[in-house]
Amino acid sequence: MTAGAIPTKVAVIGAGDIGCGWGALCVAAGWPVAVYDTGGHAADAAIDTVARRARALVALDRAAHGIVERGLLEVQRARSLLQVVRDADWVIEAISEDLTAKQKLFEAVEQVAAPSAVLSSSSSGLPPSEIFGRVLDRTRCLVIHPLNPPELMPLVELVPCPETAERQMDQAQEYLRALGRIPITLKKAVPGYVVGRVAAAVWRECIDLVLGGVIGVSDLDRAVSLGPALGWAAAGPHLTYHLGAGAGGVPMFLQHLLRSFEGWWADLARWDKLEPEQQRALVMAIERAYAGQLPALREARDRRLGAILQGLEKAREETT
Amino acid sequence: MTAGAIPTKVAVIGAGDIGCGWGALCVAAGWPVAVYDTGGHAADAAIDTVARRARALVALDRAAHGIVERGLLEVQRARSLLQVVRDADWVIEAISEDLTAKQKLFEAVEQVAAPSAVLSSSSSGLPPSEIFGRVLDRTRCLVIHPLNPPELMPLVELVPCPETAERQMDQAQEYLRALGRIPITLKKAVPGYVVGRVAAAVWRECIDLVLGGVIGVSDLDRAVSLGPALGWAAAGPHLTYHLGAGAGGVPMFLQHLLRSFEGWWADLARWDKLEPEQQRALVMAIERAYAGQLPALREARDRRLGAILQGLEKAREETT
Fold first, then answer.
1. Cα separation, B130 vs A280, whole angstroms
2. What pLDDT digit, counting tens, does each position of A151-200 carry?
3. Contacts of residue A220 in chain B, CB cutoff 8 Å?
4. Which end of chain A has the lower number of beta carbons within 10 A, N or C?
5. Closest Cα of chain A to B49: distance in Å?
6. Cα(B188)–Cα(A53) distance, rounded to whole angstroms?
7. Candidate from B125, B182, B303 with C-beta closest to A264
8. What digits encode the pLDDT tens for the residues B285-305?
9. C-alpha angle A78-A115-A87 in degrees, rounded to nearest 5
10. What would the DSSP string read from start to end of B75-90?
């Protein structure tokens, strides 16, 4: 069997937010998807959620109506692990971030998955060598970490085990590219991978600024959105600073601003526990700032995300 | 004299990257601008740079050709501090990040500026009470920190002195909104303000990931651009996590992922000096990754930025 860009079946295990996003993404590509969750209710609800999120992609011009509707006819709500995994070329684990649960799951999956199937975990930061610690043949195992929502965010982080075979990495990347995703492979696993670490660095400082009374929740969010995030979306951090001091490039930037950065680094938040009292204060501040309904906030976010993606695609076309 | 949205003249002091960006932005609004720099060559070059950058805004659909060309007729290359500041309603300092130099400059500016003029510093992180430490009347002084490039990035951080008058804050915000900027006011000054601190948190971790061999410069930049930055551009960090765990909002997110974040926080980079050897390694890695010419890289960045801004504006229109 040769590697193909289209799996005959994708198995999604775990019908939460991330699992449903994977489901919507595959449906929007017209791929047959089976969804399984140990909570029967979650799996039932997932079928509706996947349909709603796949159709939302059509409204955002990110998917074609005909393909989505055809794909939705092939969404299967699996009743068992055996049923979901059977005949799948790609098994996507999207259960909660619980190492033991993931280990047990993959131990069971290995027993029933087709020998050539790619087995991937959606973990956002656990070491792949531990996630797949009970799998005998880890050559086909890797972390494929999507961002939220997976059906809109282009980046996926790939974190192989030491044993992961080149061929399975290629296959995974082929699937992901066929889904319009942009896979980036880490050279080694670190806690939180790249995305989680960068996100953690940002969120800690943002929490600290809000709890320290420097700025309110919604002003902070707008400042990051319309400031640094916008800049980094157009050029990653290193390129941003390479372009940040005129014709001199990053050496000139360091000459002008390293002293500022060093002062700020020394002053940044460095706590690593969010105490219950701080959690309560943070939750209250966020809920006060975003008192609206979550579905409406999510829809607005997705609309902005879709519009940004289209803008970026337009900019890319203009160069080629 | 009542506060107006259009200054009769804007004085830009410092003809570097940020000063030229302010100049281009004001020109694109058709506002008369005078530019002064103690380095005569820089001021000469600035006139060309301002023109090029203002015209680039037309190419990006961010400014109207006629207004830019009319504005360019009114750009003045001032020969002295007195000449640049005289009759200006708004004095923008954009010299290098040197506290003493800024203090001396504003001491001199105060002697010659019109009594009602807004005096602003483009500092990216110094305390306004120190920047304006030698000014006798600080009621009209504040930091207005733009991002790079100022003519494209919508966010500006406003950091008042304790003495800054409400009226001058209003006037500054009126000017900025008339320039299409989005001003956010800090409740108190902290080193690096909000943007610098968030940027410092991100860049430290990104430098650490590259120097630690986890990922290469361009993969890191793409990962941040197409991942977290894209997400935060569509919804700031707090809103992102409020939407990150389905219907449960941020309490559910904390329940599911706080333990992960706490593990990452404990593991993040915490150095606050970039040693000369690390600087060299970083510069080499960045220059190797972006071996192309800076002007072409900058142009591509600006095109992406312009496209994202248009996308966001489109998404905003669709809601209203």
1. 36
2. 999 999 999 999 999 999 999 999 999 999 999 999 999 999 999 999 99
3. 194, 236-238
4. C
5. 11
6. 42
7. B125
8. 999 999 988 999 999 999 999
9. 30
10. EEE-SSHHHHHTT-SE
The token duo for B106 is 């504003």
Chain position carrying tokens 């506060």: B3
Q: Decide if A249 touches B, using CB distance below 8 A.
A: yes
- For A235-260, letters b (16+ CB in 10 Å) and e give bbbbbbbbbbbbeebbbbbbebbeeb
For chain B, positions 160-179, list CB contacts with chain A under 8 A. none
Contacts of A147 in chain B (CB under 8 A): 227-228, 231
Query: Nearest-CA neighbor of A150 among A81, A57, A232?
Result: A57
CB-count exposure of residue B108 (10 Å: 0-12, 13-18, 19+): middle
Please say whether the structural domain B10-185 has been given the CATH code 3.40.50.720. Answer: yes
pLDDT at B4: 65
Asked whether the ipTM of the predicted complex exceeds the cut of 0.85, the reply is yes
Q: Does the reported pTM lie above 0.90?
A: yes
Output the CATH code of domain B196-289. 1.10.1040.10
Tell me the per-residue pLDDT of B26-47, one tens digit each, with 9 for 90 and over: 999 999 999 999 987 888 899 9
pLDDT, residue B292, reads 82
Neighbours of B167 (CB within 10 A): 13
Give the domain ranges of chain B: 10-185, 196-289
Residue keyed to tokens 């700020």: A264
Which residues of chain B register pLDDT less than 50? 1-2
Would you state the structure tokens that stand for residue B269, as one six-digit string? 């980079």
Which residues lie across from A36 on neighbouring strands? A13
Q: Is A154 on the interface with B (CB under 8 A)?
A: yes
**Pair of tokens at residue A30:** 């017209």
Exposed (0-12), middle (13-18) or buried (19+): which is B237, by Cβ within 10 Å? Answer: buried
Contacts of A150 (CB under 8 A, 6+ apart): A18, A21, A22, A24, A25, A156
pLDDT for position B1 = 39
Query: What are the pLDDT digits (tens) for B147-193?
Result: 999 999 999 999 999 999 999 999 999 999 999 999 999 999 999 99
Does residue B124 contact residue B97 with C-beta atoms inside 8 Å? yes
Strand-strand pairing, A141-146 and A118-121: parallel
Query: Which pLDDT score, from 0 to 100, does residue B2 have?
Result: 45
